[in-house]
Amino acid sequence: MERLKLRHDDALKALKTLEDILGEPFSTIVRDATIQRFEYTFEALWKFLREYLKDQEGVICNSPKSCFRELFSLGFSSEGETVKCLEMTDSRNDTSHTYKEQVARTIYGKVKEDYFLLMRNVMRKFERTI
Known about the structure:
This protein is mostly helical. About 80% of the residues lie in helices and about 0% in strands. It has a single domain, classed as Four Helix Bundle (Hemerythrin (Met), subunit A) (Up-down Bundle), CATH 1.20.120.330.
């Protein structure tokens, strides 16, 4: 349970840093910092979910997509949320290509418009369980 609490706290801290950068006016530096914060927030989120599923549900998952699918099968997320989480995973995998201007713009827009709120909503579902 202690490890789960640490993972939870890490995910919340990472989410807060992402929220902070989203409040900054746009520049290429802010865009790039947002993408970097999205990367580590995503990592903290899925690792928390993996730990939660193992510790509380007895479910082993070894990838972000398998964790999101398990959350859906256990009733923690809707089909729509799950589809967005799977899309977010693909975007996270695309961050290694942000040297391409269009990729960077696309990911930044999705983080700002969708992914931050999605990750915050996922974390809120576990507030009372940790």
